[in-house]
Amino acid sequence: MVVTQLRPTNTWGTTFVVPSAFNNTADSTPHLIVTSDQGVTFNSTLQIGTGTNSPYSVSHLVYDLKTQYLNSSKHFSVTLIQPGHISELTPVSSFSACYLLPEKTSISKALVIAPTLNVSQVYVGKDQISSEVEWKTVDSQPYSWAMIDLPSGEHRVIWHPSTKIGVYVKDGENWSEAISITTEPALQGCLLDRARYSVMDQSGTWAEMVGHCQQENGELLSINNEGILRELSQSLSNPSKQEEVWVGLRRRLLNGEWYWLNKQPMNITKWFQGQPGSSEDKFCASMSLSSDNNENFRWMSRSCCHVLKPVCYKHNVYFPLAAPT
């Protein structure tokens, strides 16, 4: 007897891709367990009804691989039964953009499922897959699958920059899901945390807050264009009270010229009327956060020793595509 825990219903899907490669076992043809709490019809032909003694229908199907695509208007789950191993298949709705593969040295291949139009953009680590990889279409559906050789080493990542994919790994004769890292695609890799603007809780002098933003994987805010102002209005708008915060704007000691820390030109200015002042002790700049649109995001010159909270621009955080050297 083999016992396995069924997936929660909120992880079920309506579409599954079941590549014919799952049939390549040495000892036996794999079986599928299809689970649903409703009567379902797959591909308009295969019907499974609900059981009379249970709210679930569990059916064992000896899969002859005449179809690799299960689709229904009802939600269901699919479990792959192999000799000595049970694994859940991933519905298309739960595909991810980036996967981490187990570190086991016995795993040398991965099975990747991707939209047919996007198969050439699959990456293994930092490298795009070879054009010689053979992709096989899934019946008449818009998906294809391929077996990909994995590089040796412990750190292996498969990802796609523009669409979600499915990834399985083969250990011996058995298949299992790869580990999903991120669900949403990103052009530069596996995005763990998106860039954002944040008013930090800690207060300090201008120089101290430059360092604090760097410690938080960011930099003191520089405002070089109207696009940044629009992003600020979405993320920092409607403060509960008026607040003054540090930004990455500073005046040069020699000529009094104002400059941004990120070294980009000052394409726009948002000084309060009468600002910046000509005072010789105000070489840093702050910004107003206010519910008054006439004052919101306006700048003023300040002594760099003044104590304020900073607005930090936190950079995108990516999962490393290669092992640290």
CA-to-CA gap between the ends?
46 Å
Secondary-structure-derived class? mainly beta
CATH superfamily of the largest domain: Mannose-Binding Protein A, subunit A
What is the number of beta strands? 26
Q: List segments where confidence is low: pLDDT < 50 over at least 5 consecutive residues.
A: none
The biggest sheet amounts to: 7 strands, mixed
**How many distinct folded domains?**
3
Strand content: 35-45%
- In angstroms, what is the radius of gyration? 28 Å
- In CATH, the topology of the largest domain is named Mannose-Binding Protein A, Chain A
Helix content: under 10%
Question: Topology of this structure?
Answer:
Elements: E1 13-17, E2 31-36, E3 40-42, E4 46-48, E5 57-62, E6 69-82, E7 85-88, E8 98-100, E9 109-115, E10 123-124, E11 127-128, E12 136-137, E13 143-149, E14 157-159, E15 166-171, E16 174-177, E17 179-182, E18 190-193, E19 196-199, H1 206-215, E20 218-220, H2 226-235, E21 243-251, E22 258-260, E23 284-289, E24 299-302, E25 309-314, E26 317-319
Parallel strand pairs: 21-25
Antiparallel strand pairs: 1-6, 2-5, 2-6, 3-4, 6-7, 8-14, 8-17, 9-13, 9-15, 10-11, 10-14, 12-13, 15-16, 18-26, 19-25, 20-25, 21-22, 21-23, 23-24
Outline:
By secondary structure, the chain is mostly beta strands. It has three domains: 1-90, no CATH class; 95-190, no CATH class; 196-314, Roll (Mannose-Binding Protein A, Chain A), CATH 3.10.100. Helix content is 6%, strand content 38%.
